């Protein structure tokens, strides 16, 4: 905490320094000024919490300083130390926020008491200021989410507008007099990959940036409002209610703002003019259709409307027509055969004059179903959780590969499709390799028979191999010897059982393959660092 001493007499400032136990009051910095003007410069630079000032000084006196403080440093607490017992000065002190008025010669007790009171007053105000800051931060965090949900609700169900009409009028200037609107959509589905990669670790920041840019243009003259669509992972919706005939041109201005700020342009879909709020859903659906049905193979405009629809796609082309060829290529394990199968598909796609986002979505869904079916075929008997795990490296949604002009890049798409299918083929080959590898069969046997009296000799007899061969190969594959591997399985199972307070230690030992409780405890402590009983006490019981 800082204090500023303002007095034109140095011996008075020196006396104040000696009369106060600064450390006791938590003050670690003491500043000095010979007049009010010098004081204002120090206050602006250091922002002291406490100011002790004389009233009669040259250049700028204490009266003027108090007035300056109220306007420029309202959070500081001021103690006046004056040689004049003047009621008008006292009244001025109180009027401009002074906490105390002390007469010279200075009484040490009175000075320390006044300082203590000023510090308490500052601390109480600071606590309130901090509470308000936290509240403002919380409100600023919650408010966008509130508008997202509210406006998304009106898009989905226009009748909900009535309950929020007053708020919309007050906050967004969306008055009851407004009876027409248009809806535009900015979708991240067709945004340049380089931009999305830049924000890949924080997509919320990308949404925040895009919405802020839109609203910088929209809210300046109450033209509309942009928000994140609550029911979509990739959409930003722009609700427009002013100068609707010039909406397309205004979206171009917003796009130029995107280019300046984020070095990219985006595609907007825009619906027709409709009655607000009754038909806002129709305008939204038209905007969405305009985006989904635009031709990704051409770049005529960034603003898409159903008033100027793209040429209709040719006869439906389905990805499943090529499933058998790709399936055989995966089973072959040959990258060349996989590339040939995908090339056949891509050659057919290239013949299409029109490819829409709607069409890409259909192909993506077909491919997703095919991948799941292949995994279930190739790895028969595996659980649903295992299927999900094996496909976890695959993207959960189709990322439209666009070039710098925002046109669909078939070469990028071909590379990504090849990478995905090669990945599945490698998983199949690895699984086949494991199936042939007897060491993995032994590991699986241990997983299933850990509770039995399993010995290396029994394993050797069961799998018709020498003990030495098993020991050597097992250590190479798993980097631990067979007995330690079995011990790890048993201890893992034991830790689960120990959480059951109704099982005795001896019962747990027997259930994981140890007939001797003491030996079980010894092995447990060696591997886990604590006894079974200590582990039980420190773990949550089931």
From TrEMBL:
Q: Where in the cell is it found?
A: Cytoplasm
4-aspartylphosphate: residues bearing it? 54
Going by the entry's taxonomy, the superkingdom of the source organism is recorded as: Bacteria
Alphabetical keyword list: Cytoplasm, DNA-binding, Phosphoprotein, Transcription, Transcription regulation, Two-component regulatory system
Coiled-coil residues are none
Residues covered by the HTH araC/xylS-type domain = 440-538
Q: Which InterPro entries match?
A: CheY-like_superfamily, Homeodomain-like_sf, HptR, HTH_AraC, HTH_AraC-typ_CS, Sig_transdc_resp-reg_receiver, Tscrpt_reg_AraC-type_HTH
The residue ranges of the Response regulatory domain are 2-119
PANTHER family assigned to the protein according to its UniProt record, in alphabetical order: HISTIDINE KINASE-RELATED, TRANSCRIPTIONAL REGULATORY PROTEIN HPTR
**What is the designated name of this protein?**
Response regulator
Question: Per the UniProt entry, what species is this protein from, by scientific name?
Answer: Paenibacillus chondroitinus
